[in-house]
Every structure is written in structure tokens, then in C-alpha cells.
Design brief:
Layout: E1 12-17, H1 23-33, E2 41-46, H2 52-65, E3 73-76, H3 81-87, E4 93-96, H4 99-109, H5 126-141, E5 156-161, H6 166-177, E6 181-186, E7 207-211, H7 214-224, H8 233-249, E8 254-256, H9 262-273
Parallel strand pairs: 1-2, 1-3, 3-4, 5-6, 5-7, 7-8
């Protein structure tokens, strides 16, 4: 049986390595780390490792973080075989999120993988890249109700009171999955009638609601506008209650974002809304 860690244990150093942006390594690694909520971690992402020389420098950093009392955890999605072999020389615990499964994929497809540096993040696929860029532009244009132009073209419309996580979730869904996501803020005036705001009233089927806890929402708002009515616990409680009632009345699915990462929220939203990866 593994003993419970004491509070005096130093944070475990965690590294996310990639030949591209590192988003996949970070996402997958953090999903695993989330299974150990009692532990603390010191995270560092090292993206764009494209040469063996860079890999050697990275290994030196990894080994410096590994001591007699703590072993560095290393999550890697590096696809280049030569670079990956160099990284595996580390004294840290190397978790190969790419190569460890590649043999299985090759066997099923009956085709050898290219092991190219750019293969993972798909820059070579112009259509995929363009689709994601258009999705990001759409999300930026339609952030927080800033624009109502072509709103009907949205794959998804996130609806929520201010500071419930609409913007980062919209951007993540656009960047990672190529979804055109608009987000629309609910303000106190929207709760008076019980109807959906006019701009999204006819787009109910595309809507997805976000909630939080009053304590968490008050904390987040307080960092932006300390001491304001906007950030008060009473105001946050009121808006969340009314938002939840609005979602229920109009059969809009919703999730509580208070204790969820953006990655988890995106996964639940896509599954609930039956949205696939469009890019």
C-alpha cells in the first residue's frame, strides 16, 4: 500500500515536452495528475523541441530536477524518433504519450508512421489549419456578446453570468476542435422576464449554460472589482439561481464550472451537445 504523502513533501516537478505547441502533452498529462488531488506539482512546458541538441539540453534540465528525494515526471508527445530516444535518456520518469502507442496504430493500419516533427500538430494540413483559424476569429469576434453578426453560424453558444468561464472555454473549443463558438453574457436585466435574451432566443438549440458556485464567482469577480455589488456574495447567488432557472425553463444543458478545468468543461460540452471535432 502506498503511504499518504505528508504536508512537508516538496512539489513534484512535472515537465510537458513536445515537438509542437505542447497543448496535447499538457492536456493529457494534467488529466493524469488530476487523479492525485492530494499532491502538489511544479509544472513546466517545453514546446518546439525539434533537434537532438535541444533534446540534450532538455535532458540536462530534467535531470537537474530529479534528486534523491523527488523524481521528475516527464510527459512527452515528441514524435521524432531520434529526438524521442534522446529524451528517454533522462533520469526522470518518462511517460511517452506518443511512441508507446504508435506501434499499435501502425499494426492496425498496416502502414509505417513517418515519425515527422510536424505530424502531431497538423500544420501540414492546410484545410484543418484554416478551419481552426476561422473558428478562433469567430470566437474572438463573438466574445461576451461583442458582435451579433452571423450568430446563427455558431456551432455552439455559451451562455452564463459574467466570469463563469465563457471566454477561455470558447477559445479552447475553437483552437483545439475547430468549433465556431460564440458566448453571450447574462446580465441582471435578462432575469426579469424569464425569457432568453432576444439575440439568442431563436438559437436555443445551440445554447449551453455555464454555472459556478456563489463563493467561487464572488472570489473571481472580487479580483476584478473588489468591494463592488457586482462581486458581492448576494449578487452572485442571485444571478446563479436565476441563470439556473432560465436554463431549466428553456431546456438548455448546463454544467458547473467551479471545480472543472477548461479541458474537462470542453469534453463534457462536446459530449452533451454531440459536437465532433470539426478540424
Amino acid at each position: 500500500m502506498i503511504p499518504e504523502p505528508s504536508e512537508s513533501v516538496a512539489p513534484t516537478p512535472v515537465f510537458f515536452l513536445a515537438g509542437g505547441t505542447g497543448i496535447s502533452a499538457e492536456t493529457l498529462g494534467n488529466l493524469m495528475l488530476a487523479q492525485f488531488p492530494s499532491l502538489s506539482f511544479r509544472r513546466r512546458k517545453i514546446p518546439f523541441i525539434t533537434t537532438v541538441e535541444q533534446a540534450r539540453e532538455v535532458v540536462a534540465e530534467l535531470d537537474a530536477a530529479t534528486t534523491d528525494s523527488v523524481t521528475a515526471l516527464v510527459f512527452s508527445t515528441v514524435s521524432d524518433e531520434e529526438i524521442r530516444k534522446e529524451l528517454q535518456r533522462t533520469e526522470g520518469a518518462f511517460i511517452d504519450l506518443f511512441g508507446s502507442h504508435l506501434d499499435t496504430v501502425e499494426r492496425v493500419l498496416h502502414v509505417n508512421a513517418t515519425h515527422g516533427v510536424g505530424a502531431l500538430h497538423g500544420v501540414g494540413d492546410t484545410r484543418r489549419y484554416d478551419a481552426r483559424m476561422k473558428a478562433i476569429e469567430f470566437a474572438m469576434e463573438h466574445d461576451d456578446g461583442a458582435s451579433l453578426r452571423n450568430l446563427e453560424q455558431a456551432d455552439l453558444i455559451l451562455v452564463a453570468p459574467s466570469r463563469c468561464g465563457k471566454t477561455p472555454t470558447s477559445m479552447y473549443l475553437a483552437l483545439q476542435h475547430g468549433l465556431k463558438v460564440a458566448n453571450y453574457p447574462l446580465v441582471p436585466e435578462d432575469f426579469d422576464t424569464g425569457d432568453l435574451p432576444r439575440p439568442i432566443k431563436d438559437l436555443q438549440g445551440k445554447c449551453f449554460g455555464l454555472l459556478s458556485t456563489a463563493a467561487r464567482l464572488s472570489q473571481v469577480r472580487g479580483e476584478r472589482r473588489p468591494g463592488s455589488t457586482y462581486a458581492s456574495l448576494a449578487q452572485c447567488s442571485y444571478e446563479l439561481r436565476r441563470a439556473e432557472a432560465l436554463y431549466r425553463a428553456h431546456r438548455i444543458p448546463s454544467i458547473n464550472s467551479a471545480a472543472m478545468s477548461v479541458e474537462e468543461m470542453a469534453a463534457v460540452i462536446m459530449q452533451t451537445s454531440r459536437l465532433g471535432n470539426l478540424a
